[in-house]
Amino acid sequence: MDSTLVERGGGLVTVIFNRPEKKNALDGTNWADLDRILTEVARNPADRALLLTGAGGNFSSGADLTGGAGTGGGAGEAGGLSGPRQAILHEMRTAGDIVNRLHRLPKPTIAAVDGVAVGVSLGLVLACDLVVASDRARFCEVFARRGLSLDGGTSWSLPRQIGLRRAKQMALFGDWVSAPDALAWGLVNEVVPADELPKVAAAWGRRLAAGPTTALSLIKRLLDASDSTTFERAVEDEARAQHIAYTTKDAREGFRAFAERREPRFTGV
User: Fold this and answer.
1) pLDDT, tens digit, for every residue of 149-195?
2) How many CB atoms lie within 10 A of CB 209?
3) Which of 76, 167, 207, 263 could form a disulfide with 158 if both were Cys (CB 3.0 to 4.6 A apart)?
4) Are 128 and 109 in contact (CB under 8 A)?
5) Distance (Å, rounded) from C-alpha 104 to C-alpha 108?
6) CATH number, domain containing residue 218
7) Under a CB-based contact definition with an 8 Å cutoff, are residues 131 and 111 in contact?
């Protein structure tokens, strides 16, 4: 059985962690698959949006620790993220690079979370642009309960998305956060009934995949940079981004659609 499934349709790439017997705990194979998929999506113009989710009623229980105390555990002696097991420093740098590539992917991304999202898998969730969760979803920064520090980029993404006080509450206690609290705190965009999650997430994904891909990429970059720039720099970056967007066929289609009073049909170029 493949531990990571990939489905493609209408420009949407759906990545499914597929180890339901372990609540989709991430092993070295999952990380290698995600590494490969992110490269493919970044380079393939037909791939216009990415949806990340899990099989069997859970997103992921985090790192598979059954093979040891490393993020790449669960694959035996050769259980590292990029071959034979390395020192934790190098394993974590490899994992961090993959999470960062998800965060920096020049195409819109969605995480669909059912069940649990724990530890490093919560880092993958927070690296996505949008998060839709089921009403039974639960989130946990489990590290302190294992005697560990943070990883998965959550030391950056968590306080940025829910504020420093809430981030410290999650990280220092390691308590579970329910879907309603996650919505109230700003950890997720929407909460829907569990049986509606696949339909809603796919609909969001299809909307993004049908959008003006270059413009969405520029919007994503501008918003991600918003906390580390000045207003003056932001408006200058907007001017440059708008100049680029104006050169695309999608922009011309957008103007035509407005003039003809119809919905635009973007092609991503």
Assistant:
1) 999 999 999 999 999 999 999 999 999 999 999 999 999 999 999 99
2) 25
3) 167
4) yes
5) 10
6) 1.10.12
7) yes
